Amino acid sequence: MNDSPIVILTALDVEYEAIREKLDVPQVRRHPQGTRFEVGRIRGGKCRIALGLVGKGNQSAAVLAERAIAEFSPVALLFVGVAGALHTHIALGDVVVATHVYAFHGGTSEDDGFKSRPRVWEASHGADQLARHVARTRDWAGGGRAPEVHFGPIAAGEVVLNSRVSGHAHWIRQHYNDALAIEMEGAGVAQAAHLNKSLPVVVVRGVSDGADGTKETTDREQWQARAVANAAAFTLALAENLAGEEQDRARSEANDTKGSTDMTGTTRNVAKDNARVGVQAGQVYGGIHVSSERTAPTDPTKAIAGLAARLQQARTAGQLDEDTYQAAQAELATASETLLTTTPQDMGAVTLALKKVRGLVAEVAILAAEVGTIIALVQGLS
């Protein structure tokens, strides 16, 4: 099963924290160039999130979005944050989901004025449809009254708009009259996703001000925090649904592959003890049954060493992500050291470390079963 995460990016610390507080024990992933991401599952859910902070502006958003895509090969890329509303029917605290993202600063300056040369990225059809479904269910707000969710274009530039009468405000209304909100990162994120095989990208914004000269007042009244909370709740619900659809797709493909094989007869290969069995062939006629029949381990130290080797194999095969692998290996190292350095051996501490490993690898059934066997061995020796 594909366990690729969904990347969520934010520009501000308050936005980052709104997502992070919903993750169960997020683990730091460091990019070689120093960027720090945190990876964890949504508390009470199944979706893995890779969370990153890009700072303000489309350029940094594009660079770090590209970095996140290369690092995680995500299912989708979501950007969550605040924005200023460009129309009076959009209330403070409402959520705006981009159907299009305008990069509105492109243009040419001529004798008779500035001519707009906009670039635009359209949300993928599937992601847009799913976001609308989440909005219709109206249960993403945690049982409270869900704010309105608006779908439409968002304008992304390099300035904070806080006026309805400035020359810049008039220019936005003249050239981007259908834009619902204005912000500073969506174009960079959309461009990065577009350059990566049209990776699904959704920009979600909570409305924290009216882009009308009242930003200082609305910030003082804590509308930024409220808008962030609403946008974060919607984004996490969308992420769960995106992950669920990806799992359904992978399951369907696996079933299709399984159902398309037409084999008769059976070849049986059995691996015992620490041996592994596999099949490598160009064409195979007849059925193949692959199984493992290990004799029960008797030495906990050797059993833990063997498990450590199989964790490495699982990481190489893509069954474990790097964070899970490192955390599990650390617990195994603790268990091994306890066996070697405590007299009498502290089997309770060893068991606790192994139970943590079992929790970490729970989604890889064969590894979880092996850990269970070793736990039973340790408990039998205590």
UniProtKB/TrEMBL annotation:
Gene Ontology terms for molecular function: 8-oxo-7,8-dihydrodeoxyguanosine triphosphate pyrophosphatase activity; adenosylhomocysteine nucleosidase activity; methylthioadenosine nucleosidase activity
Composition bias type Polar residues, residue spans: 257-267
Matching InterPro entries: Nucleoside_phosphorylase_d, Nucleoside_phosphorylase_sf
GO biological process per UniProt: L-methionine salvage from S-adenosylmethionine; nucleoside metabolic process
Region (Disordered): 243-267
Gene3D superfamilies the record matches: Nucleoside phosphorylase domain (3.40.50.1580)
EC number per UniProt: 3.6.1.55
Keywords: Hydrolase
Keyword Hydrolase attached: yes
Boundaries of every Nucleoside phosphorylase domain copy: 5-238
Keyword Hydrolase: yes
GO cellular component, one term: cytosol
CDD domains: MTAN
Bias type Basic and acidic residues, positions: 246-256
Protein name: 8-oxo-dGTP diphosphatase
